[in-house]
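Input set for joint prediction.
Command: fold jointly, output tokens.
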Amino acid sequence: MARAGIELNGVRYRRPSRPVVVVCIDGGDPAYFDRGVRDGVVPNVARFMKTGFGAVADGDVPSFTCPNNMSITTGSPPAVHGISGNFYLDRATGEAVVMTGPDLLRSHTIMAEFSRHGARVVSVTAKDKLRRQLGKDMDLAGGSVNFSSECAEQCTLEEHGIENVLEFVGMPLPDIYSPELSLFVLEAGIRLLERRQPDLLYLSLTDYIQHKYAPGEAEADRYYRNMDAMFGRLDALGAAVALTADHGMTDKSNPDGSPKVIWLQDVLDARFGKGACTVVCPITDRFVAHHGALGGFVRVYCRASLDPADVMKVARAIPGVEAVCDRATAAERFELPLDREGDVVVISRADTCIGASEKDHDLSGLRGHRLRTHGGISEAKVPFILNRPLRAEYAARAAAGPLRSYQIFDFAINGVE
Ligand SMILES: [Zn+2]
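tokens >
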């Protein structure tokens, strides 16, 4: 009996004939795999790239976690799914609105659609903030599962589709700032694959290591070695395994190790006066110790008295700025939801980040570490790796490009033999 597939955002996904695992390696800049393959740290990934498929794809800008996780899992850009940052500014009230919950998501996820069509789906994330968004409208009645390693000890059958997760996974509850938070996600995926025969798994990690350690550093190597062994186990279980990332990561520090920051709110306040505009850093969340809320992409909201064109002129003249766009141009160029866009978007170069006002950023968590962060165009390149060769039609599509990270489910489900 042929089992039903789904259609979502213009793409048809067949019902997988073998389990499909998509892993989002948070902050998994392609440089880590480049270095890891060269140094023999990731032998399974090296083998996938040789006998399966390996390329670098374009993720979405802003190259942040939530927008790209939702792009990957809806197979569409933010203009369709609506999530363009961790929060935006409501123009009517001037209030910051959190965008990481399920309410503002404008599309189902591929996992939710499959779960509603009788497939057994698994979604496991490192941080709980993503869990509800990824699991929006997921039907857990048929054995599907949705939980985070952060809150793994709180799982109930009713809300997560699974209980006693620590025992099931065989690992203690990991610390929120640890590589184990991600390794727990992968181990959970492996055990679920072994014991519950899911059709589709989405495993989304956290970028704690990538924010702290560059490719080739011992801690990064250890993390990648551990991940690679788990990718090998997923492969050995017969799954189609697809690896991508939500965004890359670059070093944005001065030679002395201090962060190389443009304090944009301070620059604009000095030029236009306090209160004329508000700089929003949409990377901000409650887990800021490893990046101090500094990223490569900010939005400026102007009061009626201030012309966005004047802000753009000032921003363009700041050293380290790569791109400045007005609202309509940003929405069109980066496929972002216009109604949630700022008046001006400012993006920094790879070696520089942008903050709001210096006094409002707590950089104490960065002490002793160079700042590595993301958000701009320079961190939007991500790996796109499959453990099986592509069918001819998909090989042709990949060769013609541009390859987008939000095509990874399409390629993993429809594109491999
Ligand atoms: Zn991320």
